[in-house]
Amino acid sequence: MTHEIYPSREVIEAAHDRIRPFIHRTPVLTSATLDALSGAKLYFKCENWQKIGAFKARGGLNAVLSLSEQDLKNGITTHSSGNHAQAIAYAARQVGAKAYIVMPDNSPRVKIEAVRQYGADIAFCVNTPEARQEAVDRLVEQTGATFIHPFNDYRVIAGQATAARELIEEVGTSLDVVMAPVGGGGLLSGTALAARYFSPQTTVVAGEPEGAADAVLSFRSGQIERAPYVRTIADGLLTPLGTKTLPIILENVKEILTVSDDEIVAAMRLLWERMKIVVEPSGAVPLAALIKHKERFKDQRIGIILTGGNVDLGKLPF
Fold first, then answer.
1. Measured CA distances, 312 to 52, 68, 92, 224 (Å)
2. Do 9-54+154-315 and 57-147 show the same overall fold?
């Protein structure tokens, strides 16, 4: 597989410079309790404290700030169940462009409200990849807006890579493993590229919900697979991989570990109770995978990206 077209080290550095004025450099937290529980030394990159409450601000901003005035003239559009929707709405506001967002009709209320607050127009659709794409295509036809894919876009991937880059800068290149969740693979492929360029001896491992286990199948077969069924509390990880994310993941990720909803909720609860931080279910997936397989991570230094904190407080799973 060729990797000439992947975002290079320079492209990721340029993305970081581009978005830096608009994002938080989120802290890296540690927890003696969770170290003892896992048998490893853990470093949590708190993207739950990022602008919009999720890492997606990075990729959305990089994509939008890379557009020309001509591209921005008729606004921008995307489809997303929430965090990327907020990222594009937030980024559009920064550049004074109109945002048209397609959201599945079962998106979390907290995410819908946030998108509205950023001044975006929302159109709802049923929650299938096909319905999302059809709704966006209609919007592009009606408005002439520029479409930014939630993950299958190298500008988005380069932006997401900056979270792991900051983590590596902060903790040093002594990290044995970096863990991230996987949905469409924008964060995971960006994280894998950041590790490859900035800390080559660090391996990358993903966590995925059993109730949306397409990436683990794609990882085995080498082509984009669909999950046998989709039913999980981790609403941010429902989409299959993309044509741009899969090749990067195949080449740069060591393994993908699946976890049940019960394991996700237990990890989420640990983060809330022990670290006093609000993390959404999708963000707890890597910790759940680590705890489930702790024998294979024993005594290692592990970075974990806590991807977001946009959780509906009226519907907590505990």
1. 14, 36, 24, 31
2. yes
Strands in the chain per DSSP E: 28-29, 41-46, 76-79, 99-104, 121-125, 146-147, 177-181, 203-209, 255-259, 301-306
Q: Using only the alpha carbons of the chain, give its radius of gyration.
A: 18
CA distance 45 to 55: 10
> CB-side exposure of 220: number of CA atoms within 13 Å?
9
End-to-end Cα separation, the chain, in angstroms: 44
Mean pLDDT of 275-279: 97
- pLDDT-derived band at 5 (thresholds 50, 70, 90) equals confident
pTM confidence score: 0.95
Domain boundaries, the chain: 9-54+154-315, 57-147
| 3-state SS assignment for residue 54 | strand
pLDDT in tens, 248-264: 999 999 999 999 999 99
Write the class of the CATH domain 57-147: alpha beta
The architecture (CATH level 2) of 9-54+154-315 comes to: 3-Layer(aba) Sandwich (3.40)
Q: pLDDT by residue (tens digit) across 76-109? A: 999 988 889 999 999 999 999 999 999 999 888 8
Assess contact for 260 and 234: CB atoms under 8 A.
Answer: no
